[in-house]
Each structure stands twice: as C-alpha cells, then as structure tokens.
C-alpha cells in the first residue's frame, strides 16, 4: 500500500500551522532557557536584558552539582522508584480496569464511583495519616515507603476500564472461555496485547508523575543515601545564597531521562491518542 501524499498548505490550514508552531515554541522555550542558564554563571539569571544564548559553563556547573549532592545515586534511586511504581500501577490498573469493564459483581458501580471520588481529594489531606502508617511499618527512608502510596491510581483504573470496554470485544472473551481459558489467561494472552497503547500512555503519565513528585518524597526520605532527584536537588537551594547556574544544571540533567523515556514510547503514546480520537 502506497504511503499517502503529504497535504499541501492552503489558505485555510496555514493559520492553524502558524498557531501550532507558535504554541510549540512557547512550550519548548522554558526548556531552552533552562539549558541556557545551566551553561551560564549564576549572575546571568538576573541579567537585564535576559541572556538567551548558551554559555560555556555547562560542565563546570554540573561539576558543582556532583561536588554538592550524590547526583547519580539520587538518579539511580529515582529510576528504581519510578520503574517499580509504574510497573505496579500498570498491573493493578489493568487488572482492575479489566474487572470493571468485563465482569459483573455486587457493588461494582458503587465501588467504581468511590474510586473516582478519591481523585478529587487533595493529596495533602492524607499526608499525616500516610506518614504515620509508613512510620509504623518501618518504611521511612526507604524507596518502598516513598512509592507504595502511588500504586493505587484512580486515573489509571479509569483509563484502563474505558480502554478495555471499547477495545476488547465480548465475543472474543466468550470464544476464549469456550477454548478453556481462565480469566487470568484471557487477561494475559488477549487483553494485554490489545491495550499496549493505553499501557504506554499510562506508563508515561505515571513515570513522569512519580519522577516530579517532591512533597511526599521530601517527607519520607531523610537519609541522603535514599534521596531521590527532587529531594537531592532541593538541598542545592541554600537559604542565604542560591547558585542558579548549578541548580538549573542539575535540573537540566534530571530532565534528560524523561525526554529519553518519552522518545522511546512516543509512537505508542501517539497511537493511543489517535485511536481514541477515531473511536
């Protein structure tokens, strides 16, 4: 099958492309400015007019970061935490979404609404009871304590439930049951391959959410050896003097893994959005 020819610009589509281009540049500018500041001395942060061209101190600023905090240890802790939470959320959410979408059981609708209602509760309200529970379990200063509260993700359950209900035909499940498949075998062999795009979308959302989480990690993690990137970078913010070049250099290198993750899974992410829009 021949590839479709690219659409030509017309008077009607040209303004749309112009607006999209401007919006893209505005969205990318904070990342570019962060990179520029990471290559400049701290004084350039408050310079007038603002500095918009990269400097030559990227390596020097990053060396200051390495001399101040255990950056690579914190990055490794963050990667382990985000990966474990993402895998856990994907499994739990897909299983729960599959159950809510394809099975009938008492209190199904009430339980689903109750899960959705937890999305409107500010996470700060649960900070004290969650901290008390984690401390009683002896999980303070551990990655387990920093990540366990994120394993139950109401948004993930909702997304998986909607995707499974639309993408997995009931007839396919009935045929699998006639062949002797158990419910878990149906989930593992039929449902999971179908919902890969939703997996990629939810995985990117969860990984990014946990990577950027600060309040809970700052509350639970007090030992520098267990610091995640967000907590370690916060320690660069001195109360009397802030080296913005060093701080933004650390933030810049902490953002690179997120960009790599998105580039690895962007095709599945885009296909999920496209498929949903077509449906």
UniProtKB/TrEMBL annotation:
SUPFAM superfamilies on file: MetI-like
Designated name of the protein: Carbohydrate ABC transporter permease
InterPro entries reported in the protein's UniProt record: MetI-like (IPR000515), MetI-like_sf (IPR035906)
Cell compartments where the protein resides: Cell membrane
Topology versus the membrane: Multi-pass membrane protein
Location of the ABC transmembrane type-1 domain: 75-265
Organism field: Halobacillus salinus
UniProt-listed Gene3D superfamilies: MetI-like (1.10.3720.10)
KW Cytoplasm (keyword) present: no
Major location (coarse): membrane
Keyword Cell membrane: yes
Ranges annotated as spanning the membrane: 12-35, 74-98, 110-132, 144-164, 185-211, 244-265
Gene Ontology BP annotations: transmembrane transport
Family: Belongs to the binding-protein-dependent transport system permease family.
């Amino acid at each position: 099958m021949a590839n479709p020819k690219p659409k030509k610009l017309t008077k009607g589509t040209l303004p749309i492309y112009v607006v999209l281009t401007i919006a893209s540049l505005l969205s990318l500018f904070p990342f570019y400015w962060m990179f520029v500041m990471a290559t400049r001395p701290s004084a350039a942060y408050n310079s007038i007019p603002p500095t918009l061209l990269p400097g030559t101190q990227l390596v020097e600023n990053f060396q200051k970061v390495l001399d101040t905090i255990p950056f690579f240890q914190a990055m490794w802790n963050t990667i382990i935490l985000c990966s474990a939470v993402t895998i856990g959320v994907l499994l739990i959410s897909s299983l729960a979404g599959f159950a809510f979408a394809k099975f009938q059981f008492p209190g199904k609708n009430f339980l689903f609404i109750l899960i959705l209602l937890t999305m409107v509760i500010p996470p700060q309200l649960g900070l004290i009871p969650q901290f008390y529970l984690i401390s009683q379990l002896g999980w303070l200063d551990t990655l387990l304590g920093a990540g366990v509260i994120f394993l139950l993700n109401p948004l993930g359950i909702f997304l998986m439930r909607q995707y499974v209900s639309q993408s997995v035909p009931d007839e396919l499940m009935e045929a699998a049951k006639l062949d002797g498949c158990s419910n878990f075998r149906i989930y593992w062999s039929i449902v999971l391959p179908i919902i890969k795009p939703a997996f990629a979308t939810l995985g990117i959302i969860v990984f990014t959410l946990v990577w950027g989480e600060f309040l809970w990690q700052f509350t639970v993690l007090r030992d520098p050896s267990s610091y995640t990137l967000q907590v370690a970078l916060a320690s660069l913010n001195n109360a009397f003097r802030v080296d913005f070049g060093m701080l933004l250099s650390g933030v810049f290198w902490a953002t690179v893994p997120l960009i790599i993750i998105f580039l690895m899974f962007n095709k599945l992410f885009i296909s999920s959005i496209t498929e949903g829009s077509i449906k």
